[in-house]
Write a structure and sequence with these properties.
The complex is a heterotrimer of chains A (339), B (405) and C (227).
Chain A lengths: L4 H30 L7 H38 L9 H5 L5 H26 L7 H27 L10 H4 L6 H8 L2 H20 L5 H36 L19 H21 L6 H40 L4
Helix pairs in contact in A: 1-2, 1-5, 2-4, 4-5, 4-10, 8-9, 9-10, 9-11, 10-11
Chain B lengths: L5 H18 L1 H36 L5 E7 L2 E3 L1 E2 L2 H6 L6 E12 L4 E8 L2 H5 L6 E3 L13 E4 L1 H9 L5 E4 L8 E9 L4 H4 L2 E5 H7 L6 E2 L1 E5 L6 H11 L3 E5 H39 L3 H12 L4 H33 L5 H5 L17 H27 L4 H4 L4
Parallel strand pairs in B: 5-10, 7-9
Antiparallel strand pairs in B: 1-2, 1-12, 1-13, 3-11, 4-5, 4-12, 6-9, 7-10, 8-9
Chain C lengths: L3 E12 L7 E12 L3 E5 L6 H8 L7 E6 L2 E2 L5 H11 E4 L11 H6 L9 H14 L15 H13 L5 E5 L7 H16 L3 E6 L2 H4 L6 E6 L2 E2 L2
The chains are: A mainly alpha (339), B alpha+beta (405), C alpha/beta (227).
Chain lengths: 339, 405, 227
């Protein structure tokens, strides 16, 4: 199993990520320990130079992580050909207990790397690098994520067993099924759609109303944004599985969130997820930036960056909604009824 | 100074990187060639595996849904007709058919032939008429309709050597007398890979040669129209008759896919050593900056380029180099597999199975493959150049200030 | 109207601090230079004038002391911000020209503009003005390595001026020139001074530091400014 080309690809990609990240970690630790802005010693200059290395490392990590997310999905799909019972990525991922946790961790990592990179960018705009130590401490705390991911990957790969029958998306994302898949699919349209749209409405309210109230903006508007985006992401996933997918496949029982990434469905999933991830990433980051209030020199740059993030996330959210509900609208126009 | 946008800046940097690569052609050419060769090798293997698998999937769709064999003492034996009614009754089964086939070993030529029994009139009259080169048969052999056969090209060549190309005598030492068969045709060349060592005999004649008792068959074949029920029905058959073995089409497909995967992985892993060595080469080359390069970066830093910008240049250089190498490698592999039909590699992948693929090699270029190849090539390359690129980019302008000449 | 454009306050540069091969190239150097003036740093080789020039030119950071350019303390700035200041205010002409041989004259001249995101068209426009001014238009696409010493000198000057910097620093500009080219050089320098540039030159050549256009001469010995 290990030598299957797609598995090899995953292993190579993750190893590269971990190795490069480790390089960054060593330097991050050195910077965290020894940083003294006011020093004119050679040592400080070297540390300054090392900040560039760490930035490059994290850029590479994000780039590779995005690639790996795609790769995992495709690899799972390909591996489904050799695992009995599996007909698409879902089968492969559910064939042992490490598949889905791996995917979840990768998604979390993606967001975390993105946020770190934005904060890094912000910090580099200011001459005094005010967030340096917090930033690198953060990196040191993020590192275990990468380690865990690699461990999970190896566990997942080593536990793939072509002799064990696994389930396919039809049975995982089935209302009758036990487990998370079942509950996700079972979430009826009547429940999840209002929830999803109330979150969206809350977002818009937060953006255009709450924040304008200057006293409220001081703490309420800012607090809300970050958790709101997490809620948005999760409810969007549920909506995708329990509602959107039905109309893409035009089948009440087919609720798989991966099958529509393929060529047969014109790679529909790609723009859909792209908008979702971009919107959530920028939205979350924007919200997080709102927590940064000192030092004050930072504030001005933060505000500019926040505005950009907010702009992108808003449009991303709208695009997601449009793309997501397009199949539904198309179906309704075609047949005049719901499935 | 009025600055341009971020995009303009990136465009400038990419431009400069390209120019920079071209200026140092000789240094980069060697790396490029090795890189292309490695990508070529990996891609060729992936393409051939993908095509064979795809083709296997297509041809194996003609395989029966379930093949049922009887096992005695761990080996396959003849299966009596008595099983048929009970299997037919399982809900979901559309039909059960019988098959007569086996192997025949010709000691004098040390050749193993596959014998398949069928009603040859189906070939004579139907659409399959055109896959056979029909021979002229003298009238008298019409008396033995049961003892006619059509053979593959490979068999024909062998029999020509022993002057038996018109009629062949089947004989085993313990038989009373040999059984003569008239050769009424040979399979045409385009079916070569499947028919090469095949002898298709009239059913009754085949039974005689294979010594199959009446009412017994080599195996049974079950047709199940609903694919989702195949597993279940196979399971039921095994439950009712523990002495029977079932092989589903899906199982065969999975086995093929997995063996193709295994074979390709084997070849790939031997490449890993080469890839690893290559990466070390890259690291080494990238780490040691030539005095010329050092000077150039020193100049750039001295006239005001940020470390960031120099790093970007180094990154783009790497990206462009590995990108071009990957593309070239992929294109070369495509040409090798689909135009030249993979001389050399072909032998490794073919020739171990009882069902030979026809080796038409349908191009199966999925964008997925490209992503995989990029991951295996560009990502490690960039990973290895991160540190050396940084080392280069932090060169101090001092270097050129205190330099002589 | 004269205001301080460059000021150094007890600037010191020590290499390999704390190690056995420790060397102090510049010690407690204090200078004040007014805008629009032509200043020469003179002294024998090894006196530290190149190092002092590189400290002022943002090419290195002082071990102690302050360098102030146009009122901004640049010594403590991280590289990125120091560079920005450098790009906006300073043009540097190096002792050995330090041009990139495999590149054309045009490409060498516009090099400082690339990270600024200036479009190729705009870059050409600016460069062409300078090419004309220094009589290099006919050499536009030539590889720099095919140029004569004098022509390379002019390319180096053009490159230093492409970003419209107000301060020009030149390190031993006449070191590799014959007397005819040196007088050409002085002509250019004078022209530049007339157009408002502040110019700081290091040189041990009397033709340079005794030129009538020179406003101030600082003498350096063993790393210290002695006059």
């Amino acid at each position: 199993m290990i030598l299957h080309p797609w598995v090899l690809g995953l292993i190579i990609g993750h190893s590269a990520l971990l190795l490069v990240f480790s390089l960054g970690l060593i330097n991050a630790w050195q910077i965290y320990r020894g940083w003294d802005y006011n020093s004119t010693e050679e040592k400080q200059f070297l540390l300054e130079k090392k900040t560039y290395l760490v930035s490059t490392v994290m850029n590479f990590a994000l780039f590779t992580q995005i690639l790996m997310l795609f790769l995992l999905e495709i690899a799972a799909d390909e591996l489904a050909n050799v695992l009995p019972g599996a007909m698409c990525a879902v089968g492969t991922l559910s064939s042992n207990s490490y598949g889905f946790p791996l995917l979840d961790l990768k998604i979390v990592s993606f967001f975390v790397y993105f946020i770190w990179l934005v904060i890094n960018y912000l910090d580099n705009q200011i001459e005094t690098y005010p967030l340096v130590r917090k930033k690198y401490l953060g990196l040191i705390l993020i590192y275990p994520l990468a380690v865990m991911e690699t461990i999970l990957l190896f566990l997942f790969v080593f536990n793939l067993d072509p002799s064990v029958i696994t389930s396919c998306c039809g049975s995982v994302y089935n209302e009758g099924a036990e487990g998370l898949g079942g509950s996700l699919a079972g979430a009826s349209a009547g429940f999840i759609l209002p929830l999803f749209f109330s979150i969206v409405t809350l977002q818009l309210l937060n953006r255009f109303v709450f924040k304008r109230w200057s006293t409220v903006d001081k703490w309420f508007g800012n607090l809300l944004e970050f958790p709101l985006w997490i809620a948005f992401f999760m409810s969007a996933i549920v909506v995708t599985i329990s509602f959107i997918s039905i109309y893409v496949y035009e089948m009440l029982s087919h609720k798989c969130p991966f099958c529509f990434m393929g060529a047969e469905y014109y790679y529909y999933g790609v723009p859909l997820y792209f908008c979702l991830f971009v919107a959530t990433a920028t939205g979350m980051t924007g919200g997080l930036l709102g927590y940064i209030r000192q030092p004050s020199i930072l504030k001005e740059k933060t505000v500019i960056l926040r505005k950009k993030m907010e702009f992108v996330s808003l449009w991303g959210m709208l695009a997601f909604i449009v793309i997501g509900f397009l199949p539904f609208v198309a179906y309704y126009m075609k047949t005049g009824r719901l499935i | 100074m009025i600055s341009g946008s971020w995009f303009e800046k990136q465009r400038n940097i990419i431009d400069y990187s390209l120019q920079s690569l071209l200026r140092r052609r000789s240094k980069n050419i060697l790396i490029l060639i090795i890189f292309i060769l490695l990508v070529f090798a990996v891609s060729a293997i992936l393409f051939i595996t993908g095509s064979l698998t795809k083709e296997m999937m297509i041809t194996s769709n003609d395989l029966p849904d379930i093949t049922v064999q009887r096992i005695l003492g761990g080996r396959q034996v003849n299966i009596p007709a008595s099983y048929i009614p009970e299997i037919e009754e399982i809900p979901g089964v559309e039909a059960v058919e019988t098959r007569v086939w086996g192997y025949f070993y010709l000691a004098s030529l040390q050749a193993n032939f596959t014998i398949f029994g069928m009603d040859l009139t189906l070939l004579e009259d139907g659409e399959y008429q055109k896959i056979v080169n029909w021979k002229n048969i003298p009238d008298q052999t019409e008396n033995n309709p049961d003892f006619r056969m059509i053979i593959g090209q490979g068999v024909f060549e062998l029999l020509k050597d022993i002057q038996m190309e018109k009629a062949y005598l089947f004989y085993q030492p313990f038989w009373e007398k040999p059984i003569p068969f008239d050769i009424i045709g040979t399979f045409k060349a385009e079916t070569e890979l499947q028919s090469n060592d095949l002898m298709v005999l009239q059913t009754e004649g085949a039974r005689r040669v294979l010594e199959l008792p009446p009412d017994e068959f080599s195996d049974l074949v079950v047709y199940v129209p609903n694919p989702e029920e195949i597993e279940n029905i196979a399971l039921k058959i095994r439950r009712y008759f523990p002495e029977l073995r079932t092989i589903t089409r899906v199982q065969i497909q999975n086995t093929y896919a997995s063996v193709f995967g295994w074979k390709s992985a084997f070849v790939l892993s031997s490449l890993l050593v080469a890839i690893f060595a290559f990466l070390i080469l890259i690291w080494d080359k990238a780490s040691g900056l030539s005095p010329d390069e050092k000077r150039e970066i020193g100049i750039l830093k001295a006239i005001g380029w940020d470390t960031d910008v120099v790093l970007s240049v180094k990154f783009w250089e790497g990206f462009i180099l590995s990108g071009i190498a990957s593309l070239a490698g992929i294109l070369l592999a495509y040409a090798y597999i689909y135009w030249l039909r993979a001389p050399g590699l072909r032998e490794i992948f073919i020739g171990w199975s009882t069902i030979y693929p026809s080796f038409q090699l349908i191009p199966d270029v999925d964008p997925k493959f490209l992503l995989l190849i990029v991951t295996i090539s560009v990502v490690p390359y960039l990973a290895v150049t991160v540190f050396p690129a940084w080392k280069a980019a932090i060169t101090d302008p001092d270097v050129i200030m205190r330099n002589i000449g | 109207m004269s205001n301080l454009i460059i000021e150094t306050i007890t600037v010191t540069k020590t290499y390999n601090l704390g190690k056995p091969n420790e060397v102090t190239a510049v010690k407690d150097a204090s200078l004040q230079i007014n805008e629009g003036s032509l200043v020469v740093l003179k002294g024998p080789s090894g006196s530290g004038k190149t190092t002092l020039l590189s400290l002022i030119g943002c090419q290195a950071k002082p071990t102690r002391g302050e360098v102030i350019i146009r009122g901004k303390r640049i010594s403590k700035l991280p590289e990125k911000f120091m560079n920005r200041h450098k790009r906006n205010h300073i043009g540097f002409i190096f002792q050995h020209f330090q041009l990139i041989g495999g590149m054309s004259v045009l490409d060498n001249i516009v090099l400082p503009l690339i990270p600024e995101g200036i479009s190729p068209k705009e870059r050409s426009k600016r460069a062409d003005r300078l090419l004309e001014r220094f009589d290099l238009t006919h050499r536009r696409q030539f590889k720099v390595s095919h140029l004569s010493g004098g022509e390379q000198q002019r390319v180096a000057i053009a490159r230093a001026l492409i970003n419209n910097a107000g301060i020009l620093l030149a390190d031993e500009p006449s070191a590799h020139l014959d007397s005819r080219l040196t007088s050409d050089l002085l002509l250019y320098i004078n022209q530049l001074k007339q157009s408002g540039q502040t110019i700081l030159i290091t040189s041990h050549d009397p033709i340079i530091y005794q030129h009538p256009a020179v406003d101030q001469v600082f003498e350096m010995k063993d790393g210290q400014v002695i006059s």
